[in-house]
TrEMBL record:
Keywords: Transferase. The lineage of its organism: Bacteria, Pseudomonadati, Pseudomonadota, Betaproteobacteria, Burkholderiales. Transmembrane segments: none annotated. NCBIfam families: HpnC. Its EC number is 2.5.1.21. This is Squalene synthase HpnC. It comes from Roseateles aquae. The gene is hpnC. Gene3D superfamilies: Farnesyl Diphosphate Synthase. It is an enzyme of class 2 (transferase). Pfam families: SQS_PSY. GO terms for molecular function: squalene synthase [NAD(P)H] activity.
């Protein structure tokens, strides 16, 4: 599952101590694939056209590595990314559409900077975040539909939390992930967000969006009890990390247009304690109200 507060590609775990050693090469290879694609889409001073061309070339190298074919002419990322990823794709039969979905999301970020409603934003999350969880569930050989739905809920929640955490970074760069329908509901103008103008209306907007992200996280949280051993414990920390960031946002009264909350070493003890205390939901008695 994705992890929070990783230095660059925040919604992804590096092969942590909780990851089984046999899976660490695959997790690390997927991470470097995603991180490099993120760099191509977001780092440096290249034009959008050049970034799209680079991502298309990157996709071509992905296809070659997945089949064991020679790298295409002019391959730039073979040694850095695909020499490690290709064998993992073939060994673990990683679903290529999930890796491609991540590239689709990076490409979308270069051409789309507004979302009309929550469903449209969740559709973006289905490509930008949910494939990460599904790839890791694939490595753990967890395939049932309930687990996949819960994974999607956690991953989408983490992506949304990252959006609301990063308002002070994204908005000045012209990206507004808060859906237009929510902006209209709270009377918040796009221009005010682009200029990071804090207001009670903007904070009320963020409060509602954070509540939405929290609801998704709680929907997916029972997955921690479906995953075996280390995977379940790692996921507990992931869930608690996301919830902890939401706590940080609430503590600053949702003022993420002017400052960015982050987790630090002082957050680890409460996260670990809460992870330890996560219990399966008790079954409701027959006839109980939902």
């Amino acid at each position: 599952m994705p992890a929070v507060s990783i230095d660059h590609y925040e919604n992804f775990p590096v092969a942590s101590l909780l990851c089984p050693p046999a899976l660490r090469p695959a997790v690390a290879a997927i991470y470097h694939f995603a991180r490099t694609a993120d760099d191509l889409a977001d780092e440096g001073n290249a034009s959008s056209e050049q970034r799209l061309a680079d991502l298309r070339a990157y996709r071509a190298e992905l296809h070659a590595s997945a089949t064991g074919s020679p790298p295409p002419p002019g391959a730039r990322w073979q040694q850095r990314v695909f020499a490690a990823l290709g064998p993992q794709i073939r060994q673990h039969q990683l679903p290529l559409p999930l890796l491609e979905a991540l590239l689709d999301a990076f490409e979308q970020d270069l051409v789309k900077t507004r979302y009309e409603d929550r469903e449209e934003l969740l559709d973006y999350c289905r490509r930008s975040a949910n494939p990460v969880g599904r790839l890791l569930l694939h490595l753990y050989r967890v395939k049932d539909e309930t687990a996949l739905r819960r994974s999607d809920a956690i991953c989408s929640s983490l992506q949304l939390i990252n959006f609301w955490q990063d308002m002070s970074r994204d908005c000045p760069n012209g990206r507004i992930y808060a859906p237009r329908a929510d902006l209209r509901c709270h009377g918040v103008d796009e221009a005010a967000l682009l200029n990071c103008q804090d207001s009670q209306a903007a904070r009320a907007l963020l409060a509602e969006l954070c509540a939405w992200a929290e609801q998704l996280m709680l929907q997916g949280a029972p997955l921690v009890h479906q995953l075996p051993g280390r995977a379940g414990w790692e996921l507990r920390l992931v869930v608690q990390g996301g919830l902890r960031i939401l706590e940080r946002i609430r503590a600053m009264d949702f003022a993420t247009l002017t400052q960015r909350p982050a987790l630090g070493a002082q957050d680890l003890p409460p996260m670990a304690w809460r992870a330890l205390r996560m219990k399966p939901a008790l079954p409701q008695p027959s006839g109980a109200a939902p």
